[in-house]
Amino acid sequence: MLQIDSLHVSYGAIRAVRSVSLTVEEGEFVVLLGPNGAGKSSTLAAVMGLLKPSSGTVAFLGREITGQQTEAIVRSGLVLTPEGRRILATLTVRENLLLAGAIRPDRKAMHADLERLLERFPVLGRRTGSAAGTLSGGEAQQLAIARSLMARPKLLLLDEPTLGLAPMVVDQIFEIVAELVAEGLTILMVEQNAVRAIEAADRGYVMRSGEIVASGSAADLGGAQGLVTSYLGVNRE
Amino acid sequence: MTSRTWSAALRSGAIRALLLAIPVAVLTVGWAAARGASGERLAIATVISVVLVAGIGIFVGNSGVESFGHIAFAAIGAYSVAILATPPEIKRTRISEAPLGLADIRLDVLPAALVALAVVAIAAVVIGFVVMRMSGISSTIVTLALLVVVNGVINNWTAVTGGAEAFYGVPTVVTLPSALGVMLLVLFVASAFKSSPWGLMLQASREDELAASTMGVNVRLLRLIAFVISAVGAGAGGVLLALLLGAITPNDFFLTLTFITIAMLVLGGKRSTTGAVLGVIVVTIGNEIFRWLGDGPMISGFQLPALPGFSTLFLGVVIIVVMIWRSAGIMGDREIDDFTKRWLRKAQVRPTALPGSTARSTARLNAENLVKHFDGVAAVDGVSLEVGPGEIVGLIGPNGAGKTTLLNLLSGVLQADSGTVSINGELLPRKLHRVARTGLARTFQNIRLFGELDVSENVQVTTIVASSSHDHLMHPQDLLTTFHLESQAGRKAGVLAYGDQRRLEIARAAAIGRHFVLLDEPVAGMNEVESLELRETIRELNGLRGAGILVVDHDLSFILGLCQRIYVLDAGRIIAVGTPAEIVSNPAVIEAYIGASAAQHEQPDATRGTEEPQPDEDHS
C-alpha cells in the first residue's frame, strides 16, 4: 500500500534520513521505532510532502506521490496525525472535525461520519461545543485521531500518539489504536513506548542515525528486551 | 567557544569596528576624491547612515523588539543641536519667541552636540520605561507612535523649532573625517555591546523571554539600557545630519528616513553590526545606480528613457528579493571577524571560575497551602509540599491535575492566589528574575532554549547571572563536560538532537540552580533507554552540589527509579505522598492515575531501571 524507496532527507548539512526503504501492506499495523533524532518523524513528514526529500521515491496505492502537495496526498487517503496533536485550540471540538472534513465532496456522508465519530469517542461527544484548547491531553489526542479519521484515511500515520500522557491515558490510546486496526485500518505508527508498540504491532522497523537498522516482528527483533538493549540507545552524532 | 566577558567584548568590539570602518573609509574617501563636492556630500551622508543604522541595530538586533521610532531620536538630536549651535542672529529671525532664552544661546558645536545627546538620552529613558513594559507588536507600535508624536511636536511647537518650515543657519561643520570618527565610535559600541555579557543576556531574552527571566535575566532593565544606548546612537546620526545639511525640516526625520534605515538594517541583517554596514553600502550604491538609470542616461550611443521613481522601485524590489532569499538579512548572525578569524588569530579567553565552595546545599523548599484559580476553576487547591536538601522528589498525576501550574507557582512564573513558597523560611521573591538568583532554576515541558545562541552561550547566560548572585560558580566548559555536551559547544542550540536539547536545558538550569532544580517532564518523548540515560544525568546533577530536585513526569519507571519520595496530585490536591513502593501500592493512586494493568508492571525494585545502558558506542 505504501512503498518508500531509498528515501533521503537533509536539513542543510545534516542528513536526517538516509536511504530508508520500507513498505506497509493493506491491513497491516507497522511501527517505526528508534531513539530521538533517528529520523522517524522526518520520514513521516517526507511521506506527507511536508519535507522535500533530496532523493528517493514514495508510492501510495501503486502511484508515486513524491513531491506532491500535502493536500493532494491527504485527498488520496494518506493522513497524518502529527506529533504534539496540533489541534486548533481556539476552535470547538466540532469545528476541528468539520474543518478536517471540509476537503470531502460528499457533504452528507461527511456529516454522518462526524456524528459517528462523536459517538465512538464519547469524551468528544460530550464536549462538542468546547474550545479544543480546554481538552485534557488524552482528550486532545483522541480529537487529533478523530480529526484524521474525518478524512477517511486508507492509511493512517500516527506520530507519537502517547506523548506526554498519563499511564492510564496511554492505555486508552493503545486500545483505540488496536480497535482501529481490528476494523481494518492500515496504520504506520511512530512511538516511544517501543516495547509496548512492537508487542501490539504486526511488524516494526528500527531507525538509528537516519537509517533502518533492523526490521521484522517482535520475535525477529530479539524480543522486547533485545530491542531495548540493541537498538534504542541515545542517538548521538 | 566564545567567552562573553567584558574584556573580551571590548577587544573584539575594537577589532570589529576597525575591520568595518576601514572599508567604509576607503570607499567614501575614494568616492569623495573622485566626485568632488557633491561626491563628498554623498560620502558623508553614507557614513551618517551607518551611524543611524548601527545605532538602531543595538536595540533591535539584541532585543529582538522591532522599532520604528528611532528616527524620532535622530530628530530630537538634530533639532537640539540646531537650536543650541545656530548663531543667535539667525535664530532671532525664526524663533525669537523661544522660551528659556534659547534664541540667544550661542554654544560651540561640540558642547551643543553633547548637550543634544544628553537630551536624547533623557527622552530615551522616559520613553524606554513605557516600551520595556511591553513586548512584541505592542512595543513596536509604541515606537511608531513615538515617531508620529515627536514629528507632530516639532511641526507644531513653532516657538522653539520653527515649525514645518526649514530651520536654517545650522553651522555646516561636518567633514568626512569627523563623520568617520563618530561612526567608528558607534560601531565600537555596537560591536562591544553585542559581544558583552549584557548583549548575551538580552539576546537570550530575544530567543525566549520567559526562559531568560527564569534563568535570572533582568529583561526589562537590559532592554532599557540597550534602548538608551541605541537611541543615543541614532541621536548622534541626527546631530551629524543637522550639521551636514545646515537646514532641516521635521519631515527630514520622518517616514522616509525611517523606511530607508530599517530597509538597510533588515537587508544587511539586523542582528549583525557588519550587516548594518553592508546594508547601508548595498542600498546606497544600488540607489545611485538606479537613480542614474532612471534619469535616462546615454549608454554607448543609446538614449535610455527617463524613468522617474526608478530608485525607489529598486529599494522595494531588493528588499523583497533578499527577504525571500535570506530572511535574516544578508549577514544573518555573522560578523566580519568570523571570516577574518583565520588570519587574525583570536586569543581564547577562559574566564577564571571563582573558587566555589564545595559545601553542599542545605536549603529546604517549602510550599504552604498553595491555591491558584483560573477562571474560577481551582487548578491548584491547597497544596503543601517540601523538598529537603539534596532530595529527589517526584510529582505525578493525571493530565490536567495541576502539575505544571504547581511548578509555575514554585518557580515564580505564576503568583499564587494564596499560600506561600519559601526557601529556608524566606519567601520567594515576586520578581521572576530574582527567583533564579536565590538558587532555584527550572526546565520546561516544551524545552525553551535560546535557539539562535550556541550551546556554550546558552549555559553562559546563567553562569553570568550566577556569578553576580552567589559564590558557587561553575565554569561553562565544566558544565558542558558534566552533561556530555562539550563536543556540541559551538552548535546552535536550536539544531541539536532532542536528547541533547533536554540535557542542555538541564545544564543551563544547573548553572544557577545551586539549591533546587525543577524539571517539567524531562523524559517526555524519550524511549526506555534514553530515559535511563537522562536519569543518570539528573543523578549527576544532584550529586554535583547536592541540589534538591523536583521532577514531574508521566514515565512511571523513570520516576520510581529516580525519586526518594513522590507526591501524587489529582484535581489540584495532593492525594498521596510516599516512597515509590508505597505509591505503586496505594489504591487511590492506582485508581486515579496508574491504572490496574500498569500497576502490576511497576514494582519499583524490579523494573528495567535496574539495567544500566551500555556506554554509547557511536558517541563521537
UniProtKB/TrEMBL annotation, chain A:
CDD domains tied to this protein: ABC_TM1139_LivF_branched
Record-linked PROSITE patterns: ABC_TRANSPORTER_2
Ranges of residues in domain ABC transporter: 2-234
One of the GO BP terms on file: L-amino acid transport
Family in the record: Belongs to the ABC transporter superfamily.
Gene3D superfamilies in the record: P-loop containing nucleotide triphosphate hydrolases (3.40.50.300)
Name the UniProt record assigns to this protein: Unannotated protein
Pfam families: ABC_tran
SUPFAM superfamilies named in the record: P-loop containing nucleoside triphosphate hydrolases
Molecular functions (GO terms): ATP binding; ATP hydrolysis activity; branched-chain amino acid transmembrane transporter activity
Keywords, ordered alphabetically: Amino-acid transport, ATP-binding, Nucleotide-binding, Transport
UniProtKB/TrEMBL annotation, chain B:
Boundaries of every ABC transporter domain copy: 365-596
InterPro entries reported in the protein's UniProt record: AAA+_ATPase, ABC_AA/LPS_Transport, ABC_transp_permease, ABC_transporter-like_ATP-bd, ABC_transporter-like_CS, BCA_ABC_TP_C, LivM-like, P-loop_NTPase
Biological process terms in GO annotation: D-alanine transmembrane transport; L-alanine transport; L-isoleucine import across plasma membrane; L-valine import across plasma membrane
Chief place where the protein resides: membrane
Compartmental location: Cell membrane
SUPFAM superfamilies: P-loop containing nucleoside triphosphate hydrolases
Membrane spanning stretches: 42-61, 68-86, 109-130, 137-154, 166-193, 224-247, 253-269, 276-294, 306-325
Keywords attached to this entry: ATP-binding, Cell membrane, Membrane, Nucleotide-binding, Transmembrane, Transmembrane helix, Transport
Membrane topology: Multi-pass membrane protein
Annotated region described as Disordered, given as residue ranges: 599-620
GO cellular component, one term: plasma membrane
Any one Gene Ontology molecular-function term assigned to this protein's record: L-phenylalanine transmembrane transporter activity
Pfam families per UniProt: ABC_tran, BCA_ABC_TP_C, BPD_transp_2
SMART domains: AAA
Composition bias type Basic and acidic residues, residue spans: 602-620
Name of protein: Unannotated protein
Organism: freshwater metagenome
